[in-house]
Write a structure and sequence with these properties.
The complex is a heterodimer. Chain A is built from no helices and eleven strands. Chain A is mostly beta strands. Chain A starts with a strand and ends with a strand. By secondary structure, chain B is mainly β. Chain B has strands at residues 9-13, 18-23, 32-38, 45-50, 55-56, 61-64, 70-75, 84-91, 105-110. In chain B, strands 1-9-8-3-4 form a five-stranded mixed beta sheet, with no helix packed on it. In chain B, a hairpin with a 5-residue loop joins strand 6 (61-64) and strand 7. Chain B starts with 8 loop residues before the first strand and ends with a strand. Classes of the chains: A mainly beta, B mainly beta. Chains A and B meet through strand 4, strand 5, strand 9 and strand 10 of A and strand 3 and strand 4 of B.
């Protein structure tokens, strides 16, 4: 099993550019989520999904869009990148049943200049 | 989701047990206590979780007080590779397994 795979690992964008961060999992997990982590801080939830076709906002959703057309994939789109979106982005997945662990990808380090 | 309070940092001697406290006084009946750790800037790694009973696995033990308002993560024999930020999180599956990360405890294991 590959677990949770995030691509790319590193990305530099210019202000105003758009891009999609990819996240894929091969564990047939219902739940998937995106977090961002700014330097010296804990992770903050951006968006999450409880199954294909269902998404909802987390703590810091502004500037990001998501969709969940398949169980395996949960891409995060930045429509118009801003320097405030410079951060490390983590994708996570887990089963729906109670008290299960979440698996995290290795992160995408994004710099917006 | 209930909030948690953890000390910002602690040191531990290599080979000794590390006891990491966490307060979660507003935890509700269906919320689990989870522990994750993050080594350098890697993705968080699951350690252990529990609802009411104490739990043990190959990595650690979790002790939850009877009133569930606090818990302690125990790393029985800390190694240098256990140096990391440890996060105590409470949450329920009903909330989509959303994890609310606080500041965590930065643990430094010293030789």
């Amino acid at each position: 099993n590959a677990g949770v795979t995030q691509t790319p690992k590193f990305q530099v964008l210019k202000t105003g550019q758009s891009m999609t961060l990819q996240c894929a999992q091969d564990m047939n997990h219902e739940y998937m989520s995106w977090y961002r982590q700014d330097p010296g801080m804990g992770l903050r939830l951006i968006h999450y999904s409880v199954g294909a076709g269902i998404t909802d906002q987390g703590e810091v959703p502004n500037g990001y869009n998501v969709s969940r057309s398949t169980t395996e994939d949960f891409p995060l789109r930045l429509l118009s990148a801003a320097p405030s979106q410079t951060s490390v982005y983590f994708c996570a997945s887990s089963y729906r049943s109670s008290g299960t662990e979440a698996f995290f990808g290795q992160g995408t380090r994004l710099t917006v200049v | 989701d209930a909030k948690t309070t953890q000390p910002p940092s602690m040191d531990c001697a290599e080979g000794r047990a590390a006891n990491l406290p966490c307060n979660h006084s507003t935890i509700s009946g269906n919320e689990y206590v989870y522990w994750y750790r993050q080594i350098h800037s890697q993705g968080p790694q699951y350690i252990i979780h529990g609802l009411k009973n104490n739990e043990t696995n190959e990595m650690a033990s979790l002790i939850i007080t009877e009133d569930r308002k606090s818990s302690t993560l125990i790393l029985p024999h800390a190694t240098l590779r256990d140096t990391a930020v440890y996060y105590c999180i409470v949450g329920s599956q009903a909330a989509g397994n959303k994890l609310t990360f606080g500041g965590g405890t930065r643990v430094l294991v010293k030789p």
